[in-house]
Amino acid sequence: MEGPGNPGRFVTTEAGPSDDKAGNSCVDFPVAVVLPAGGTGERTGLQTPKQFCTFLNRPLISYTIQAFERVPWIETIVVVISEESTDLMTDIIYRFQHRKVRVVQGGSTRHRSICNGVQALNQGPVRKPKVVIIHDGVRPFVEEELLYKITMAAKEQGAAGAIRPLVSTVIATTSEGFLDHSLDRAKYRASEMPQGFLYDVIYQAYQRCSESDFEFGTECLHLALQYCGTNAKLIEGPPTLWKVTYKRDLAAAESIIKETLSRSVCIIAGGSAQATALADALQQAMASLDMVQELDIIPDLMGDNARCLSRDWNFVQVSVSSPRPCEVEAIIRALEAAERTVLHPAVLVWEAASWERSVGRLTEIISALIRDRSTALVGQLLQA
Amino acid sequence: MEGPGNPGRFVTTEAGPSDDKAGNSCVDFPVAVVLPAGGTGERTGLQTPKQFCTFLNRPLISYTIQAFERVPWIETIVVVISEESTDLMTDIIYRFQHRKVRVVQGGSTRHRSICNGVQALNQGPVRKPKVVIIHDGVRPFVEEELLYKITMAAKEQGAAGAIRPLVSTVIATTSEGFLDHSLDRAKYRASEMPQGFLYDVIYQAYQRCSESDFEFGTECLHLALQYCGTNAKLIEGPPTLWKVTYKRDLAAAESIIKETLSRSVCIIAGGSAQATALADALQQAMASLDMVQELDIIPDLMGDNARCLSRDWNFVQVSVSSPRPCEVEAIIRALEAAERTVLHPAVLVWEAASWERSVGRLTEIISALIRDRSTALVGQLLQA
Fold first, then answer.
1. What is the ipTM of this complex?
2. Which residue, B209, B237, B258, sits at the end of a domain?
3. Does B2 fall in a domain?
């Protein structure tokens, strides 16, 4: 029950049809990604840097890597990390079966780290990319469609970056801490990630930039403009691009991840007529909730029904007499073997001798378990 | 189990010692608040405007109002809402016993709404305030200490506003959608709420400003500067000041609210020696978790033990034989009467004939219930 979720699963729900939207056949040049993930996460106030914080047994950085791995035309993902995190990162790559990742050691500032990542793409076994995408280890929700737009604009214009409208007004301050003036929100944008560059543009920008840029700079688009004369094309991205910065952002990220998971329910009713009647009543009660997508009833997971294990559903066993512990364990073991329990943990067992009274309550509990993804309750026997 | 939480409860945990920090004795002039809450919340993508979204059975706007009501030197809170929401707001004021609120109807833009709120403070029964604080219905986490600083700076300087560092680089765009230049993050700040004004300054600013300001403007500090020549004092606020804007922010707000709730546990063990031994084992197991603050064991909620009901604790009953349903109901009814179940819903009943094997599991479940505040499981019988 503690194992990692199937890395392929989350992808499918979110990516959408890559051929239609992103037209991957058009990307006929090599594209690589540099993913700085060396931050200490001091703004979250937590001990663990935020890229290594875990949601549903999977660290944030792995979700971000996955978002790029699912894009067929991205060849290489260079993850730039601090020396201390090397072992941890190696373990994550192994556990979540990341296939396109190369790990590169970071520098003392953000720009030094990105520069190391860019240079690594000019050495060693991989072929030098035409376009390099620079992103952030702590922005896990990037879609193929936007990556495609950024990549194509970078190829044509030399540089491209995602932007978002400003949420707050931006103001200039005097040195004494008073308002100097406020900016017209319509003329300014927040610069977000991903950004894309012709490899030669970003490589040259880092060759030419100053120590002060390396030390205090934050904006890659600015370096491309200042040192290569390249005005980046700006592309409006969706709100989910935001960067996990504060502790509250971890809760926000977790809720987005949970929402991408299946809300369909498979009720295992056993052979008894009474339990099947309970399952039918549940099906009716849950149909009236927006929350549940689909609901199916099966007697068990044997024979032909075992194929249900390949569906991304939440499994609930109901029983009208005390279920034998070995039956419950058998179901959980089957789900574990199919790597279902971690992402879809609403496996509970409901013993309901007088079930007519408790359909409403069981409906409420199943909905709450699917919403909260409370792994602690997997396999728990609840009694009406 | 569906009733609202005690409005006083959340306050106490969060406010801190008001005398020491904020020195309320120093605020010897009338202060009022204008709280625009007429937004449609279209950026969340939800049907309910975000100020009316509910966390733990209480709408967001009520948390925000509460944050001001707990401050003794704030006399009046003018909540500005759209006509459609009048009944809903009246109901919220009644249910959560808000005592300082006046409801005023909003205008067609943010500035028109705030202006209505400011003007309402110059009419009717309340005395005209010296300083008016302008905040946002969807920023529920404002502390007395910051309100005090803003108020005093507004009294001395005429205007004051909370600021935060920029999270993203801000860039200027060309009309063709290319990067023009990026701003030096060190010189700019995000303008946040609350803001404070001498009443006469903000009143005059709204008298003098143009239709275009009313229509397109967003920044009150800007109006005070342009129309009254008042340069606002800027005061750095904490990260929790952020504005609930997108759907993900709702999850973030909920997690912050949950964190302010008590994590102490009161185990009701009944009279039996076996159940008391289980409770002792649980106490040991939970002591090793950071999660739980304190843990106490009592036999029941009768007599002297009934005083436990006045503590903000999470109650768990354990039993080593099938508990009688009437006992469980009696406990839940006692907690409901003391308005405990909504905010501290980890009331579950654990029947554990062979409990030695299940201490670890019970510890895990109790921790998860306290963390998730899953109201659906209140009073649920779980079986080892």
1. 0.81
2. B258
3. no
